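quick one before i forget lol
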Amino acid sequence: MKVQQAKQCIACDSTQLRSSPAILMPFVSHRALGWAPALIDESWGLRSISNGHAYALCLSVYCPNCELLFSDIRFDDQQMASLYSDYRGEAYTSLRDYYEPGYASRNLGLSRPLPYLSKSEEYILRYGTSPLSVLDWGGDVGVNTLFRHSALAVHVFDISEKDTIPGVFKVSRVDDLNKRYDLICCANVLEHLPDPVSTVKLIMRFMDEKTLLFVEVPFEDVMRNAYNFPERHKKHWHEHINFFSGLGLRGMLSICGLDVKEVRVLETKNDGDQAYVLQAICSLTQS
């Protein structure tokens, strides 16, 4: 299995990076790469290696230039398909629950709408009117698609095999999307992607000067705590392979050629626990 490693920043292309050893969580390495952890015991006959589990190694990489923290392992298209095919379906959930006992019960709660959707809509309306056409990029079944109750056309672009909820039209091929939308949402997607810049630039093809782009990513604890060396504090990587600061998110979107109107931190709840997300409002840069 060939593994791609990032040799430069995934946003600004800087090669002045810092790194620290970490591991891929066993569910991810098993499902994406076919690498299950190994249990080393006396039967291996290894004199200089201690007994215990051996996990897939990677690096936590930090770019001081744009404040991005990311895993050096970047999955290719086939590996991404292996990881996300039938996302949260039976096989996915079974394997993840094997490595992370209790996930199957937590997975049931993930189908509920996020509790802060109305706050996100209010945030967007500060910069535009209620959209008539909405594209939710990577929106799964559409349960968290913003303005789905009021917009005339609501499209979800997603590669999963799931059917969308009533009132939301699913589009699985880029070529089948409309030429433009009033609002494009990309929420809780970019943190998963090996090349988030390319995805944002692809999304921009469906914008014009009046389109707003709403971006949301988790504001992970290691970034929120503003460590001097965040790479030393990130010891494991799961499905989220990109961590953003507010400055890092703004910088990446600006690199793509977007006019970033605002980036804010929203404090919310996730299964009763305190959680934080970064939200950005963007438009095309006016020439």
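fyi The chain has a mean pLDDT of 94.
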